[in-house]
Design goal:
It is built from one helix and eleven strands. The chain starts with a strand and ends with a strand. 13% of the residues are buried.
């Protein structure tokens, strides 16, 4: 899933997008994306606000750590994919796949899949009729 992350590093850090780096860490501190400046851009002109679009699993939970190269200037932010998922589930297309007894949710583009759920009846049997429960695949 594509996720936009931004950081306001302050006006004194404006115009240095090539020197802005980031790394991504999961909730246990494991590094998911090594320190890089790949695809970092400045939002607007000379604002000191930087952004990057990340491609992460819909199950990812963690943080992004921003760094200004060769300084001790850092910023961090929680990555909240669950909020983005909730938005897509309410605004994007969804279908019931009768062959697999599943419900599939898509992003706003109605093409990119973001979640898939198995559908079951009250006895726990796969179904698309009399649905009692759904579980994420």
């Amino acid at each position: 899933m594509k996720v936009l992350q931004t950081a306001n590093l302050g006006y004194s850090q404006r115009g240095i997008s090539g020197s802005i780096q980031y790394a991504v860490y999961d909730t246990l501190g494991g590094e998911s994306v090594s320190l890089t400046n790949s695809n970092v851009y400045e939002v607007g002109s000379n604002t000191g606000i930087y952004g990057v679009e990340l491609n992460l699993s819909t199950q990812f939970s963690g943080s992004i750590l921003w760094k200004v190269e060769n300084t001790n200037i850092y910023a961090s932010e929680e990555i909240k994919i669950d909020q983005k998922m909730a938005r897509y589930i309410h605004t994007g297309r969804w279908i019931v796949d009768e062959n697999n007894n599943q419900m599939i949710f898509y992003e706003d583009d109605n093409v990119t899949e973001v979640a898939r759920y198995d559908l079951k009846d009250k006895n726990g049997n796969p179904t698309v009729e009399s649905i009692f429960e759904r579980t994420k695949v």
